[in-house]
Amino acid sequence: MSPRRNRPRRVARNEPPAPSVGSGYGLERTESWRGEEWVVRPVAGASGKRYRCPGCDQEIPSGVGHVVAWPVYGGVDDRRHWHRACWNARDRRGAQVLRARGAPRY
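Above: the chain sequence. Below: its structure as tokens.
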């Protein structure tokens, strides 16, 4: 028994390449949120950088898997790194209002 091949086989020279879907990332998907289409891509978190999650305002340490989301028609500056749980719960979370200690709660 021979070992399994993990690399794709070479394409013959006269054969056209297989059609690509999206931008070439197999796990990238499009979701609708707040009336806008968002591109969502899971990330392994091996870049060595730290990010701030907009859902919980906590730090995502390096090495932790998370999700990168941005509007379909947005640019590189519109990308946001979310915890997976925060992205999944984004509709259940309200706006986080930060108050001072003595501020009224209305």
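Strands lie at 29-33, 36-43, 51-52, 59-60, 66-71, 80-82.
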